[in-house]
């Protein structure tokens, strides 16, 4: 850890932790979506929308703190990147749920539950990791595991695409379902972006 002569603004740590906890809430709503009927999905979408708004508020609070702080716990561009990537995760999860409802999807293709399970695991790991930014301890396993999960998500995504294009679905349904699984893949990518940013911060602070 680099030696510093000046105090640092520490509220960022709590705000990053709160943002990550909100993502766990979003991942749980995704899990609920899997077993919900049409009416249940609409209600889940409302709760997900509220969680996404809470995520936006958390991100704006970080940006406001960043703009008003003279001393920051680590580089400003890394704070901005981390906050933005956390916000992206929530945006993608909310978009996926919204699309399921808007497209009135009756049945999600087999394999989507695996996508969502990967996202839920990545969410838990991210929430566990954020408090460790204070000390930069025990973070290596976090970013290694999230990168492994992203690779797993890539494989699941490719299998899903192969399934969608096997002729079982009509063209319109393929377009709808592909957009949903693509957005879930983007959420997995965003988790990797968060992990990569954390790794960059840890290397700089070492």
Automatic annotation (TrEMBL):
InterPro entries: PhoU-like_sf, Put_Phosphate_transp_reg, UPF0111_domain. Belongs to the UPF0111 family. It comes from Streptomyces viridochromogenes Tue57. This is Pit accessory protein.
